[in-house]
Amino acid sequence: MKFFEAKDIVREHFSRLKFTTPMLIHSLTEGRHQLETHANFWWMKKEKDFSLVVDQESYSITTSTSNGLNLPKFKDARGMIWKEDASATRFDPVAVGKTEKQDLDILYGTDDQGSPEVAAIDDTTLYIYPPKPQSTYVMRLYHYEWTDNPENTSDDDLLKYFGMALVYASIAWGYEMVLKDLQGAVYWKTLLGGSPFGRGGVLAQMKKENFKRGQQDQIDFTPRSGPGRAQRRRLDNVQIYR
After folding, report:
1. What is the largest CA-CA distance in the chain?
2. What is the C-alpha separation between 33 and 44, in angstroms, rounded?
3. How do beta strands 45-51 and 138-145 pair?
4. What is the pTM of this model?
């Protein structure tokens, strides 16, 4: 589905109610945002290269202030690696998001020096430990970002595989926020996420596909029922709700 096709469906539904074009665009924007709150989907994956600053511990993630990463659409971290400098060919891992900042503040002294070992994210700030890097180490942050709707004649993976999910979410938002018709929104929310919400509908299909892509090339999904007995389970029978 191209973006203009999704717009046409939503516009056609609300045309008799004189849904203005700015409100139409806003409903589609909010619809996408609501979908992306339910999981870190594969189309949201991004990566960012940056360099540490000598003796600087903290870096803004969403702005460029004080050597920040300038990722205004940052949602969540996936992983982090580092190398000595731009000419180095091998990266080493940095544990990120696994330990809280208050715990790392106890483990490391305020004047500890060395190469990056672990990182913590507190609100929209990235903290590197040891807190006193002594070189401009090259870093790479793997993360998820909130995404925007494409141009009119384009699509992306959300529209390509689950275009009606965006339509349902946008129409439900229109009923709730513009028409103030909560009962009207229930029908479209049921199409989107089933009843109770999140346990069915297109949203469950999205989560299932996201799970399958996350497991691809990682493990063989063959739970065992006893010693030497392998029992295969079909992924499409596995309920993925969260």
Report:
1. 66
2. 11
3. antiparallel
4. 0.84
The 3-class secondary structure across 199-217, one letter per residue, is CCHHHHHHHHHHHHHHHCC
The model's pLDDT over 55-73, given as tens digits with 9 standing for 90+, comes to 999 999 999 999 999 999 9
Beta bridge partner(s), residue 48? 141
CA pair distance 202, 200, nearest whole angstrom: 7
- Sheet order of strands, 118-122 included: 45-51, 138-145, 74-83, 92-96, 118-122, 125-129, 58-60
DSSP, residue by residue, 150-166: --TT---HHHHHHHHHH
CB contact set of 229 (below 8 Å; sequence gap of 6+): none
Residue 231: what pLDDT? 47
User: What helix, strand, coil percent values describe the chain, rounded to 5?
Assistant: 40, 20, 40
State the DSSP H helix or E strand holding residue 74, giving kind and residue range, or none if neither.
strand 74-83
The residues pairing with 143 across neighbouring beta strands, listed in sequence order, are 46, 77
CB atoms inside a 10 Å sphere around CB 212: 15
